Amino acid sequence: MKNTTNMKIPAKYQPMLDEVTRDSDGYWAYSNKGYMFDEMGCHTASEDTQAALMAVIRSLVPCDCKECVTS
User: Fold this and answer.
1) Three-class secondary structure assignment of the chain
2) Averaged over 35-42, what is the pLDDT?
3) Does the reported pTM lie above 0.70?
4) Which residues have CB under 8 Å from 7's CB, separation 6+?
5) Are 18 and 1 in contact (CB under 8 A)?
6) How much is the average pLDDT of 4-14?
7) CB hemisphere CA count around 63 (13 angstroms)
8) Cβ 60 vs Cβ 16: under 8 Å
9) 15 with 32: CB under 8 angstroms?
């Protein structure tokens, strides 16, 4: 997992995440293949604050969508 923020991601979520980053639009997280953010219903999450993004990260669940199954 690549993390370019100062967020501390709990170890149990790290294998589920590809990247956590920040830009002018806020904080972003990208899940690894096989996982999705249940709260967002997709593989990408974006929030304005670290706390809000962490709440979304905690919603990571296994994913069996076409993109995850064929990759």
Assistant:
1) CEECCCCCCCCCCHHHEEEEEEECCEEEEEECCCEEECCCCECEEEECCHHHHHHHHCCEEECCCHHHHHC
2) 92
3) yes
4) 20, 27, 50, 53, 54
5) yes
6) 96
7) 24
8) yes
9) yes
